[in-house]
Amino acid sequence: MRLFDDHHLPLYRFAWRLTGSAADAEDIVQECFLALLRPGCGFDPGRTSLRTYLFGAVRNQALNRLRRREEARAIESTDDRTPETEALRDEMAGAVAAAIAELPESQREVLLLAHYEQLSLAEIAEITELEVTAVKSRLQRARATLRETLAAYAPRPERTI
Amino acid sequence: MNDTELDQLLDSWQAPPPPRSLRDRLRARFPRAERRRFTHPLRWVLVAAAASVTLAIGMEKTGASPWDFRVGQAFTGFYDHLVHLVDMHHASYTVGIVRNSQPKVYINGQLAGSLQFKHATRIDVDVPGEGVFSVMLVRGLNGFTEAGTIHGNVIEFQAGSKQVRIECNTQLVHSERPVSVRIRR
After folding, report:
1. 121-140 in B: which are within 8 Å (CB) of A?
2. I want to staple A110 with a disulfide (CB 3.0 to 4.6 A). Which of A25, A138, B27, B114 is the partner?
3. Domain ranges, ordered by start, for chain A
């Protein structure tokens, strides 16, 4: 359980932000730790750090769930639960959540790992299986998009007479 | 908007903390430690086996009456049973090693399939397209047929039309032995 205590908080946050659902985030984190104990677990300490491996596992599971959710929504559009609706507790946080949810998937996960979990570009590259330069450019594009989308919420400069 | 302002804005979206129950629920789902079912009975098995062998040799030397013969048969049956128990103990030990040695499953040479360890002396192998096969390292069990071998760090057997190879990172046995399998579904 020490591994769980050391790693579960950032993993949970990442899963929650990716899926927008506390229940999904809990399931994903549980599954990732249980998978570590199963025979045939792909974790190789010689190739990657445990933190990177766990973030990668969370990412894969979250993306699978998001895809399944989108398929279900395409068939029957009765489920109104979205990352935005669950996060809209106050206006600004809701706007940020909505703006991030609007980002393309590949930019969103890079932004979440870089900004919210403070992972290095190299670590993100390993988790997302991209080149570091690709991670960097996706992060820049994501931030540029957010700058435009959230321009209305930018702190206004004080007017001097 | 500069970088700092954007960062401040992004920080307004806070994730909730995970529920405290998450840790307990995860702990509840941890697989239980490998049970050592046969450790204690094994002592009695060895004592009883030694006693029955001594008795059988004694009967052989003194000449047996019909009554003695029936007693001898009972002891022989009991002895077979004890041998079977020892085999089961050894199988349980070997399954424990397989479980803890990061086994990889190859179907027709390709990394595929998965293992389940629901029983102390048995390994269930999911062979895509063929079903789930129970692998037993003990011979002579009802419903199981010999279909492969265990040698070194490898268990190999035929599952329908497919060749299954389980590779472990630890040596499992010192000499080649047969394995029996049964299809479960």
Report:
1. none
2. A138
3. 2-153
> Which residue in B has a C-alpha nearest to residue A89's C-alpha?
B13
Looking at CA atoms only, how far is residue A27 from chain B in angstroms? 9
Instruction: Tell me, rounded to whole angstroms, the distance of Cα A51 from its chain centroid.
Output: 15
Residue matched to tokens 């990442």: A14
pTM as predicted: 0.48
Cβ-defined contact of B13 to A96 (cutoff 8 Å): yes
The superfamily in CATH containing domain A2-153 is PhyR, sigma-like (SL) domain (1.20.140.160)
Tokens 């579960």 sit on residue? A8
Is the minimum CB–CB distance between B169 and chain A shorter than 8 Å?
no
**pLDDT tens digits, residue range B48-93?**
888 878 777 776 666 655 556 666 677 777 777 777 778 788 888 8
**In what helix (H) or strand (E) does residue B159 lie, and over which residues does it extend?**
strand B154-159
pLDDT digits (tens, 9 = 90+) for A93-142: 888 999 999 999 899 999 999 999 889 999 999 999 899 999 999 999 99
Chain A nearest-CA distance from B142, in A, is 28
Interface check for B6 against chain A (CB to CB < 8 A): the answer is: yes
